[in-house]
Amino acid sequence: MANLDLPVIPQHVAIIMDGNGRWAKQRGLPRTIGHNKGVEAVREAVKAAGETGVKFLTLFAFSSENWSRPESEIEDLLGLLRRFIRRDLADLHRENIRIRIIGEREKLRSDILPLLLEAEETTRGNTAMTLVIAFNYGARDEITRAVGRLARDVQAGLLKPEDINSDAIGSRLDTAGIPDPDLIIRTSGEERLSNFLLWQAAYSELVFLPCYWPDFDRQQFEEALRIYAARDRRFGGLSSATTAVVG
Ligand code: FPP
After folding, report:
1. Which atom of ligand 1 is nearest to the CA of 23?
2. H-helix or E-strand containing 208?
3. What percent of the chain stands above pLDDT 70?
4. What distance in angstroms lies between residue 214's CA and the mean position of ligand 1's atoms?
5. What is the total count of domains within the chain?
6. Which residues bind Mg(2+) (predicted)?
7. Which of these, 235, 242, 225, 168, lies nearest to 3 by C-alpha position?
8. Does a structural domain hold residue 68?
9. Cα 73 to ligand 1 centre (Å)
10. CA of 39 relative to ligand 1 center, distance in Å
11. Residue 235 falls inside a structural domain
12. Mean pLDDT of 201-213
């Protein structure tokens, strides 16, 4: 375990891995090389999270909007994810890491869905850390599907409209059972959430790092944890410094 000496470590870190294309462009390389390097950064992130004591790591691997990219790039990204699961699943399992997949899976292709299900099934009992892979994920789509489930449950008489509260919604999201992210990191200098965990991000600390995703490493991860540790989380209340003075 790394000795970071921070007063607080986030329980759940979520990452928008952005900038693979720009990293490649900067070097005159095809975008696919950027995505390849991005997978190495994924491995670094998983290792760093485990070693710093983070219990949940969520990675935005493929958004429901990414299908609008050129066919060849979609194939590259799907191929990388398939290879990542085939090659790294045994290692992740050995490291006692549980894998959860969030996102719409109904209409997923037969060359990817069984792999995702196998990854979840194989690692179901693991307890060291949970790696949540957001694939074919969009927060509005996730919330829309949850609202549909709520409506069906009300219609079936399983739930009264007056019993609808944030827990009733949260338990029908893909992230049911996963605590909200304490820290959301986005690389590449862009400062937006891009339809990522919109419900769950209500009180998340957001940290935007200038580096492109392929350059993300242990040092960058620790930098984000340091920024997080220096923040004063208030959840709509008063700051701990204020309450300490006021009593
Ligand atoms: C953003 O870069 C990155 C993605 C759309 C995909 C991230 C995917 C990986 C790192 C590989 C597969 C994932 C796993 C979990 C193994 P961009 O292409 O949007 O970059 P740009 O904004 O510079 O064009």
Report:
1. 23
2. strand 205-208
3. 96
4. 9
5. 1
6. 18, 205
7. 225
8. yes
9. 10
10. 9
11. no
12. 98
Q: How many CB atoms lie within 10 A of CB 70?
A: 9
What is the C-alpha separation between 119 and 113, in angstroms, rounded?
10
Ligand 1 neighbourhood includes 22 CB (under 6 angstroms)? yes
Give, using CA atoms, the residue closest to atom 24 of ligand 1: 21
In terms of Cα–Cα distance, which of 42, 70, 25 is closest to 132?
42
Domain assignment of residue 61, given as a range? 12-230
Flag whether 97 is in a domain. yes
Length of the chain: 247
Distance (Å, whole) CA 180 – CA 201: 7
18 carries an active-site annotation: yes
CATH number for the domain including 148? 3.40.1180.10
Asked whether 20 lines ligand 1 (CB < 6 A), one says yes
Q: Which residues are annotated as a binding site for substrate?
A: 19-23, 31, 35, 63-65, 67, 69, 186, 192-194
pLDDT digits (tens, 9 = 90+) for 28-54: 999 999 999 999 999 999 999 999 999
Q: Which pLDDT score is estimated for 40?
A: 98
What confidence score (pLDDT) does residue 4 get?
A: 85
pLDDT value of position 3? 67
Ligand 1 pocket check for 103: Cβ under 6 Å = no
Per-residue pLDDT tens for 158-175? 999 999 999 999 999 999
Average pLDDT, the chain: 95
Candidates 5, 66, 136, 215; catalytic one: 66
Q: Is residue 130 part of a domain?
A: yes
